[in-house]
Amino acid sequence: MITINNLSKSYNGVTVLNLEGFEIPRGQSFGLVGNNGAGKTTLFSCLLDLIQPSSGYIENGGVKVHESEDWKTHTASFIDETFLIGYLTPEEYFYFIGDLRGENKADVDALLATFEDFFNDEIIGKRKYLRDLSKGNQKKVGIVATLIGKPDVIILDEPFANLDPTTQIRLKGIIKQMAIDKEVTVLVSSHDLQHVTEVCERIVVLEKGELVKDIITSPATLKELEAYFAGNEVITEA
Amino acid sequence: MVKQFISLEWKAFFRSASFQTNLALKILMIFGVLMMILYLGGAGVGLYFLLEKMDLEPFATVNMFMIYYVVGDLIIRYMGQKMPVVNIKPLLLLPFKKTKIVKFALGKTVLSFWNWMHAFFFIPFSIVLITQDFNPLGVLVWHIAMFCFIYANNFINVFLNDKLWLVIGVGALFALLGAAQYYEYFDITAFTQPFFQGLYETKWTVIFPIALLAVVATIAFKYFLARLYLDAGLAKKVSEASGGDLGWLDRFGKQSTFLKNDIRLIMRNKRSKTTVFMSIMFLFYGLLFFGDAIEVYSGPFWMMFAAVFVSGGFLFSFGQFVPSWDSAYYPLMMTQNIAYKEYLKSKWLLVVITTLISAILCIPYVYFGVDVLLAIIVGAIFNMGINAHLVLLGGAFIKTPIDLQSGKKAFGDKSSFNLKTLFVSLPKMLGPMALYAIGHFTVGPMLGYALVAIVGLIGFAFRDKVFNQIIKIYKSEKYKTLEAYKQTK
Fold first, then answer.
1. A207 and A227 belong to one structural domain
2. What angle do CA B269, B273, B275 make, to 5 degrees?
3. Is residue A116 part of a domain?
């Protein structure tokens, strides 16, 4: 589904991302972990053609993202609050995204109805603007909006940050559900090793822009990651 | 402690993004300030003699209009003067007395240009009065009283913040009073003039303005102090969503998605509301020209200039900043499957419809003659046919992010209506002026009008060509624009 080819990005001679390349097959749930400055958001931004790579390219659904805009029809993303329109209410925002993705009001309403629990009665029908919602609630809106229009690729940057414990657990449920669906490719970045090992089939670790680990998740993965980030890596039998 | 405050302010001022605007703009701003000082100073020196020449009693006449001066100052301040917000939040936890923070913040407003610019009028005027054998002590008392009023306005503005309707109400009331006075129905100055005059004649009455100043300063102080909590004055205002679902816009087909958004953008954000307010003011701009109020402006092509201006207020002030209005969520727009053409068309539709509405609202100008109305109509056609595209084209190059929530900046800073915007707009005025002049001086006014209208109509045919050009710019400038919009304020 997504292929990364010799991708690098540098600012004023400082390389912030340098990947030889890998492929994310259709239907995989893919986790990206790394400390601050590891290049997670940079990678996602390149993937969404928000910044231009210094070299190499990314293919999404068979098209190079910086050459054609066809990937936009099947890709949905929530990176940060610049993906929200502050002066709209959540409903208006969902309908707006729905309009852009060719879903009518009824489709959107049907989808929203399945997230009643997730919204915890704080989002729908409150007549509040998005800019006035708390960070956590804004995030909920952004995440659910990515599901409108049944996209094939969903990209979420730090989806667990700022969420309360109940919502984190529910969000894990949602992402796991998507992981079961073999049509949907989910890309998630996180600082929370436990969450990410729980929901992702494959985990890639970045450090200072380089790929340092590419693991298929197993029960031992969490330990391995914790050891790695603690700085005293133990050799695990492969 | 005050030293630290001042050093904070110093850094805030010189490190702010708006300070680091380009040099040309800074020069323009300084130029504007100098012009203002020159005007006020000129008025201060010359007004007395001018009024004398007009066979009016100068001092009494000034006192007569003083009420309008004071109220006008308050309204202009409301729109232009910024609230004295030092970076308060981080200071709350530090061992300062809160009263000290408030005193400093209010003290800062005292030094504002909005106050001392009046000195350029009042000081020379007072000196002239003394040279004209007015009682020096009386003049001094009067002078002090006037500054009490100016400073009272300064403090009233502090707690008037966000009471837009009150200000519009007061403005409208005084506009009506002014009209009533002009048509001799009712003269409010009959009551206020003796008071202002009395400050000179009966010196002890100066205690009233001084008391007023003391009272409003105290209110401003208490108002500020009471709101120095995170959940009060420093809190973000949470407002209830307004406006229906705008379903009636669906008739515009594909554009309705964006049109709905744009209308919500305009209705729900301070900055855009200020823009609308400005364009309403533009509607009255014609009075200066058509009403023969200013002699220089009565030349034939000046009429064309005004005609383009009155219907184009919104077009210029809104269109100039497409797509910057969407800067806050530009990454969203760039990752969604958006057809640029629909996006542009919706903005275009918006400016064209508002131009049409403005032109209709201008129909009362027929009072000044049918030719004035004709000029406005062809001006509007030109605006819709040519300027609507040109403005959108210009906007594609402007990469200044717009902070939708700050209304107060609509005058001063570079990202909004200002001298620069005005200069960019000028060529769009000169076009129709030149066309009209060609017709006017060869055959007559009718050919002038016809030329402007025809060129405007031809412009419609090129709409899609210009759109394609704009789309090309949007695409080629995408990364730069995203980068630029990231820099807030």
1. yes
2. 125
3. yes
